[in-house]
UniProtKB/TrEMBL annotation:
Gene3D superfamilies: Immunoglobulins
Gene label: Fcrl4_3
PROSITE patterns in the record: IG_LIKE
Domain Ig-like: 34-118
Entry protein name: FCRL4 protein
SMART domains for this protein: IG, IGc2
Naturally occurring in which organism (per UniProt): Nesospiza acunhae
Pfam families found in the cross-reference section: Ig_3
Length: 120
């Protein structure tokens, strides 16, 4: 179902030689709150060597689109990026910490559990 499928529906048919209709039914399609977020890190385990690349991915099990993503690290106010993936091309010592993904669908916002990143 899509949001535009909301509306009034009725069923009709021919019984013998007479057309009959059932009472109309109103259907309202509602947005589903984003849920079931899971984070993954590459390299696995969130342990990355100094100067190497780190990729974090956020998957959403349920939620009405369009979905928007933002990435946050503990202790920083501004988002680090948008989209279902965050790439840090040359990690530094200050990139260690807990990372979370926030997912929004206009009506509600959900936040993932954190993933711990350690720069070696």
């Amino acid at each position: 179902l899509q949001l535009h499928h909301s509306g009034c529906y009725l069923c009709g048919g021919r019984v013998v030689s007479q057309w009959r209709e059932l009472e109309p039914v109103t259907v309202t399609v509602q947005r589903v709150r984003p849920s079931g977020m899971s984070l993954s890190a590459q390299p696995a385990g969130g342990q990355v060597a100094l100067g190497h690349r780190l990729v974090l991915s956020c998957a959403v099990a349920m939620g009405t689109s369009p979905l928007s993503f933002s990435w946050h690290r503990e202790g920083l106010g501004a988002p680090l990026g948008t989209g279902p993936r965050l790439q840090l091309h040359h990690v530094g010592d200050n990139d260690s910490g807990q990372y979370r993904c926030q997912v929004s669908n206009r009506d509600s916002v959900a936040e993932s559990d954190p993933v711990n990143v350690t720069v070696l």
